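Researcher: I'm preparing a figure for a lab meeting and need a structural model of a single chain. I don't have an experimental structure, so a prediction will have to do for now. The sequence is pasted below. Please return the structure as tokens so I can convert it later.
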Amino acid sequence: MPTKDRRIEVRVTSAQRELIERAALLQGRTVSDFTADTLTERAEEVVRRDRELRVDEEAFAAFAEALDAPAQTVEGLAELFRRRSVFID
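Model: Understood. Here is the structure written out token by token.
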């Protein structure tokens, strides 16, 4: 496990501090440990969402063109939808 050698200070309201302390206590963790893990999880989510939603102009143009194109018939699809589902008892 990497050494924790950096510090982040955050100003919070009394209500926020009480809530954070309660959540940490419920998980049997220190406020520092709980806060670091929670912030890291949220940061990873934000970075992942940014990476997933960001596309360059060329890729977006191709995507928009595909959306604007007329619908195409997929051979056998209509017949497939008429069949009874295998997931219904």
